[in-house]
User: Fold this.
Amino acid sequence: MKIAVIGAGTWGTTVASLVSQSATVKLWARRPELAAAINRDHQNPDYLEGFDLPEELVATSELDDALSGAEVVVMAVPSHGFRSVLGAAAAQIPSDAPIISLAKGLEAGTRMCMTAVVRDVLPDHDPGMIGVLTGPNLAREILAGQPAASVVSVSNEDVAAHLRAVFQVPTLRVYSNTDVIGSEIAGALKNVMALGAGMAAGLGYGDNSMATFITRALAELSRLGRQMGGDPLTFAGLAGMGDLIATCISPLSRNRRVGVALAEGQSLNEITADMKMVAEGVKTTPVVLELAEEYEVEMPLADRVERVLEGQSVSEMLTELMGRPPKAEIE
Assistant:
């Protein structure tokens, strides 16, 4: 089987490395020098320094080369560049190839999930062949061979079952479901919540505070996800609770690190200027709040995260959050 992975960031490179164990993989890197380094040294020095990549993995900076003969197309491009790269690749994507997004974000302006962007750019592509791979998947732990699990979500059950086998390796157990919108919304919103969890960690708060935050974050993302058509069970699974926990508690989480730095007094510009990788939650937060307004869903945590991104102090935000009127837990 031939698989094209479009995007040589941390997670794209990791997925390409995994599936190269059982398939022929071409990994597209935007910069020729990065593709050359991967092919020459079998390492990704920009995003995964110190990790050896399979010798079988081949990188290229030419989209048509990566997509030639591809039977599965994996889009590993951040949300802000997803549409432009997909548009450039559209003519080379085989009409019968499943397209799987790894991005966990929402497109600014359109408020679209990435599968909706795919359908918009490729209106003739079978919607049952468009989906996401998501879950508690911190790339460095996955690449190190630590046991983990993921979810491939495609509306066509047969396609989902086929892709489940494509992505599964001995150290990554892959489940399938057909709730694409629920899986995508959970993946996008957990990045927003991880910013808030990082803020709590940056203030030095302990396990009670973190457990409280994660639990209420799950309630919040579930409310919006259900209103948008997601299955409630999805939010209790790997795409929802699993991914939320990993992203909120792990020092490897980029979004959590941004929140920690904000709580420690750094400005958002200072933080993002020093980051090679994208913290999707920063761009996703205002889009989430637009969706919350559209669907009339209360999202106090996301709202307070946005206020901090706009300049409010973390301690002031927390005081406001804890001072909200009491309410029933389940509403």
The mean pLDDT is 95. The domain at 2-178 is CATH 3.40.50.720 (Rossmann fold).
